[in-house]
Write a structure and sequence with these properties.
Blueprint (H helix, E strand, L loop, with lengths): L9 E4 L4 H6 L4 E4 L5 H8 L4 E6 L2 H11 E9 L11 H6 L3 E4 L7 H17 L6 E6 L3 H10 L4 E5 L5
Length: 163
């Protein structure tokens, strides 16, 4: 969606997801387990990254602090720790804005707009969703395991409403 809106996207993904990130339009794709990740990101964004969509604040906040641009925004919708330790001075001297997001708390009009944009992107082909597995609700534990392992694509759980 960021590419669709004109952003230059730097994707940090599991190694198995690199090809998919490039297919979705990321300008630069890096493996999350690269020991030189911070330097690699700074090489393509010497002034830092303006916006970070953070998938695990606790696990990635040190990297975020290393690559954030002055005045940058970190928007996080998850943290594996309820009380993550923050590198305060690095983030503070970068004048960082930290946004903690809970999708259940967004106003109805914001959710409706997001649904319209996602639908439009699916229709025009700029967002392509790959379904890797389709499982019945009885296999919900397996669905979670697939997601945790980083399966390439979406895991869809079906609900049989005939019961």
């Amino acid at each position: 969606m960021a590419v669709r809106d004109g952003a230059s996207v730097i994707a940090v993904v599991r190694p198995a997801q690199r090809k998919r990130a490039a297919e979705l339009g990321a300008s630069h794709v890096f493996a999350a387990d690269d020991p030189g990740l911070s330097a690699a990101i700074r090489a393509v964004a010497p002034g830092g990254v303006n916006r970070i969509a953070e998938v695990d604040l606790s696990d990635h906040v040190d990297l975020d602090a290393d690559v954030i641009a002055i005045g940058g925004v970190i928007s996080s919708y998850y943290s594996s720790s309820d009380r993550p330790t923050l590198p305060y001075w690095k983030l503070g001297f970068a004048d960082t804005t930290l946004r903690l997001l809970g999708s259940d708390d967004f106003p109805a009009d914001v959710k409706a707009h997001a649904a319209q944009e996602l639908t439009a992107a699916l229709i025009d082909g700029s967002l392509r969703s790959v379904i890797a597995e389709q499982l019945p609700l009885a296999d919900i534990a397996r669905a979670h395991e697939l997601v945790e392992r980083g399966v390439n694509g979406r895991v869809v759980v079906t609900i049989d409403d005939r019961a």
